[in-house]
Design a protein that fits this description.
Layout (H helix, E strand, L loop, with lengths): L1 H41 L1 H8 L1 H5 L22 H12 L5 H4 L1 H6 L1 H6 L6 E3 L3 H9 L5 H18 L1 E3 H17 L24 E6 L6 H14 L4 E4 L8 H12 L2 E3 L7 H15 L3 E4 L9 H17 L6 E7 L4 H14 L3 E5 L9 H8 L4 E5 L7 E3 L2 H8 L1
Parallel strand pairs: 3-6, 3-7, 4-5, 4-6, 7-8, 8-9
Antiparallel strand pairs: 1-2, 9-10
Helix pairs in contact: 8-9, 9-10, 10-17, 11-12, 13-14, 15-16
């Protein structure tokens, strides 16, 4: 009996120990499971891996660590935005002048052609209508009288005139206007800039002037780009110290063309900028110096005097500088462009005109007025956004495009 009692007690104690050990293990296991679930819920990477469809298909252990991917080599290429603009400007086909001047042709000769609607000839009593067309084509009053005289001569000789005879009379007189201009001797061999003077030795200096909004900065940038494409060493002198953003705008173009800019931060005198830029160009063997100037109205006499001073100062460094003083005119200005040209030419002795925004304008006849009334050659024209759309002016091509 006593032996049975001891056996029973031993079994009870063993059961109790097993119970408590089992309970302890279960409790500990439950706690760890909760901690694990809590940690998994708070781990965003685990959540992405478990919930992402891609993660389910690609086991985590098969992915390469991020550190095994080498960073791409950094190159000196321009930013994407800059590169796309540069590439677009260089790759696109240049516009045809006849297409760019279609509005001018329609406004000018298109209206004359309309006079022949339904009849083969016009008579001398219709001369007033032709005169009105000429006066409203932004040719300038002297140029209108010159062309009107050519039409009168044609009508007097024949009594009447057909369209082609009238066209030939106008075309002949227009070409005579351009042929009367003095011919340049030291021309450039740069494609698209054949009408611009280049010196055989030493830096060539171009001074660019014009009113705000005419396209002066864009013209400078395109000039620099064309020169750089031909392997010329170019220095842009930031002489527009009057406008705070001018240097930054010019810097965009110099970066795009990959040419050097001279813009000393503490120099506010544009004449000093021009002087130092020419000295630097001589010392370091630059081929071309393009001197930017502050855009200003031709009526601002004090600012025009500042331009005169810049020219005088440049001559102290190089006696024959600047070799070109180019006036940038917006072709859309029409008669106002002739007024601007007259004022700038009187103050500076402009050597040539750059007519911008010729594409789309109906006032492209201003080129003829500049040549005849001011005896200033149109050297370059801008007919689009591309680099190739800044090009040399050719009189025959121009006349054929508007008449």
């Amino acid at each position: 009996m006593e032996q049975n009692y001891l056996i029973f007690v031993g079994l009870a104690l063993a059961a109790t120990v097993v119970f408590f050990v089992g309970f302890f293990l279960w409790k500990n296991s439950s706690k760890k499971t909760k901690e694990l679930e809590k940690g998994r819920d708070s781990d965003p990477l685990t959540e992405i891996i478990t919930e992402s469809p891609v993660a389910e298909k690609v086991p985590v252990e098969t992915r390469e660590p991020e550190t095994s991917v080498e960073a791409p080599e950094i190159t000196s290429e321009p930013p994407v935005e800059q590169l796309s603009e540069q590439t677009a400007a260089e790759v696109q086909e240049p516009k045809k002048l006849s297409d760019a001047l279609s509005n001018t042709r329609q406004s000018f000769f298109g209206r004359i052609k309309g006079m022949f609607s339904g009849k083969p000839t016009i008579a001398s009593d219709e001369l007033e209508e032709i005169e009105e067309i000429l006066y409203t084509s932004d040719l300038g009053p002297k140029t209108v009288q010159l062309l009107l005289a050519a039409v009168e001569d044609q009508l007097k000789a024949e009594g009447t005139s057909g369209l082609e005879a009238l066209r030939d009379a106008l075309k002949k007189k227009m070409l005579e206007v351009f042929e009367a201009l003095p011919e340049e001797t030291a021309k450039s061999d740069i494609q698209g800039l054949e009408t611009i003077q280049m010196q055989p030795e030493g830096p060539t200096v171009w001074m660019i002037v014009g009113v705000n909004g005419a396209g002066k900065t864009t013209t400078i940038g395109k000039l620099a780009g064309k020169l750089a494409q031909e392997g010329k060493k170019v220095l842009l002198a930031a002489g527009d110290t009057f406008r705070a953003a001018a240097g930054e705008q010019l810097k965009v173009w110099t970066d795009r063309a990959q040419v050097e800019i001279f813009s000393p931060p503490d120099v506010k005198d544009p004449s000093a900028v021009a002087f130092d830029a020419l000295q630097k160009a001589k010392a370091r063997g630059f081929d071309v110096v393009i001197v930017d100037t502050a855009g200003r109205l031709h009526t601002q006499k004090n600012l025009m005097e500042e331009l005169k001073k810049m020219k005088r100062v440049m001559k102290k460094v190089m006696e024959d500088a600047p070799h070109e003083t180019l006036l940038v005119l917006d072709a859309n200005s029409g008669q106002n462009a002739l007024i601007q040209a007259n004022e700038f030419h009187g103050a500076l002795g402009v050597s040539g005109v750059v007519l911008t925004k010729m594409d789309g304008t109906a006032k492209g006849g201003v080129a003829l007025g500049v040549a005849h009334e001011l005896q200033i050659p149109v050297k370059l024209i801008g007919i689009g956004e591309g680099l190739a759309d800044l090009r040399s002016f050719e009189a025959n091509e121009y006349v054929d495009s508007i008449i």
